[in-house]
Amino acid sequence: MQLEKSNRKISVKFENSLEFAEYANAVPANNWSKIRDDYSWCGGSFEDAMEQVKHGNPNRVKKLFDGLNVIEALINEEKVGEIRDVTGEYFDVADFLSGEPEVFRRDEIGQQKPVVPVYVNFGMLGDISPDIIENRGCAIVALVDELQSSGFIVDLRIVKGTQYGYDRVYTDIKVMTNPVDLDEIAFLVANPLTQRRLWFACLEHIYEVSNCSDHGYGSSIEYDLNDIFESGLSGFYFTSSSHRIFSESNYITLEAAKAHILGMVEQFKSSASQIILG
Fold first, then answer.
1. Alpha helix (H) ranges present in the chain?
2. Does the global pTM surpass 0.90?
3. pLDDT tens digits, 222-240
4. What residues does each domain of the chain span?
5. What's the CA gap between 177 and 222, in Å, rounded?
6. Nearest-angstrom CA–CA distance, 17 and 22
């Protein structure tokens, strides 16, 4: 873990989700992040968070991927009158997300698929429901899984920006890729426990307090995209819920989440140097 402070800016970087969880768990047992009892809003207890980040949650992940199957089933619906180009000359978004292999057979032998950055800001304000967080996360898991299954190299980063008083606090959690651990990213991006237990505890740890209520645990802000995206590189950036582009309606159901992701992919394929916000 790296912690840097300068000019009211705090940067904390974790090598993996377990390091993130252990840093959070180091706060005292009577800290607010550990004892608050509104489990439905938090996604469970602090003990649940530690158990799931270390060992996973098979029942919850099954539910998540059952939802993912719903998205895939909808994506796989054929358009009336649609004719597929079996040679791969025609790039179809539905096939792209559903993992149809023939779409991606045009590469020469030995040619490597491009790297696709997918950066996720997990900052969700307190009025965002756990269902919205889960549907959004499910859509992100679907996108990452289909990109990876189709041979693309996914550069995945889980981030959070926070305005806490006069300070800006930036959190960055590395996730192993090639292959991406979908169980791990499902916990980080589709579970309220990530922010409302573990990250709250990290903020308490940074400021060495038992309760950050003086500033309400801060307000979500965005990363500077110039800092995380290489110049001219196309990719996906899922904003915090504070961003003007964020809309709960995009994730109100799995069907809505699917449609939103398809729209993002349409934008992605139309430009070689565009950051797609979602």
1. 17-25, 32-35, 39-42, 46-55, 58-75, 93-98, 130-149, 182-190, 193, 200-207, 225-228, 254-269
2. no
3. 987 665 566 556 789 999 9
4. 2-75+115-277
5. 23
6. 9
